[in-house]
Write a structure and sequence with these properties.
The protein is mostly helical. It has one domain. The longest helix is centred in the C-terminal third of the chain and has 25 residues.
Length: 292
């Protein structure tokens, strides 16, 4: 016996959020009298409400990235001793104030709103079926080949979907600073995978253009916020300094008068050459004496 869909919807735990979004969207539409622009303003309001949490997430991400060399050093040193590795890692987190889980909180809090808006649009398609926005619902859209343009906010608009996938590429590729080369490589891969998945599911399930308007505008606002936070809080990764294991090796080699990989000799070499009276090389001194 199949589980009744009506019972599932009736027990929907996010229904209060769906109703709240309906009420807020209706209130905004009462002012601007267009659901397309109302969805954009709704995305702006939600982004504004989550601004402090997103800022906290960004700062937590930077802290985690800055201690990446120390984490690698601990893994190299205690890789075979898992218990010691966990102890040292937690001590490093406590010392630096970094918390890898702090970046997950804003995402978890925003997920119910993302899902609720989807249900708010899907459950009220009759309302959006009579709404237009810019080219959506125009005579030009109705005459578009292969229904590429939407006839209403309830219909899919594949040009708008293309804009959304492109925005996702730039969002993943350029608004997530990465210090570690491996992280940068992963971001480059995700910059292609995420838009491809969005394009596939958008076409496969014929997402209403109302949803895409909201997601696209929310993504644009997110990119603007990320660029602002990068400019304000992100420092040059080179300022983090060398790998801590390398620092220990160089210091030890310098104390013993040797060198591990040539670094110590390079550090002490210039001092030795300049400490011989400042005359430079022997050939240069011979040339100066011949001139005299």
């Amino acid at each position: 016996m199949a589980f009744p869909v009506e019972l599932l919807l009736a027990a929907n735990p996010i229904q209060p959020i769906v109703d709240l979004l309906h009420a807020v969207l209706s209130s905004i539409n009462g002012i601007v009298h267009n659901y397309g622009w109302s969805l954009i303003l709704l995305a702006f309001v939600i982004k504004l409400c989550f601004w402090p949490l997103n800022t906290m997430q960004f700062k937590a991400m930077l802290k985690t990235q800055k201690i990446a060399p120390q984490l690698k050093a601990l893994q190299a040193r205690y890789g075979k001793d898992k218990e010691r590795l966990n102890t040292e890692t937690m001590a490093l987190y406590k010392e630096t104030g970094a918390n890898p889980l702090a970046g997950c909180l804003p995402i978890l809090l925003q997920m119910p709103i993302l899902i609720s808006l989807y249900w708010a649009v899907i459950s009220d398609k009759a309302l959006f079926a009579s709404q237009t926005w810019l080219w959506i619902g125009s005579k030009f859209a109705l005459a578009s080949p292969y229904h590429l343009l939407a006839s209403s906010l309830a219909a899919p608009d594949y040009v708008l979907l293309a804009f959304y996938t492109v925005s996702m590429y730039f969002s993943v590729r350029f608004t997530s600073p990465a210090v570690d080369p491996q992280q940068a490589q992963q971001q480059r891969i995700m910059a292609f995978i995420s838009p491809a998945m969005i394009g596939y599911f958008g076409i496969r399930y014929a997402w209403p253009s109302a949803l895409i308007i909201y997601w696209l505008s929310f993504n644009v606002f997110t990119m603007a916020q990320q660029l602002y936070l990068i400019r304000k809080y992100h420092t040059n990764p080179a300022a983090i300094g060398p790998h801590p294991e390398s620092v220990e090796a160089v210091a030890l080699a310098a104390a013993k008068g040797g060198s591990t990989d040539g670094t110590a000799s390079l550090a002490t070499g210039p001092a030795k050459s300049t400490g011989s009276g400042g005359g430079g090389s022997r050939a240069a001194r011979r040339r100066r004496s011949s001139r005299r």
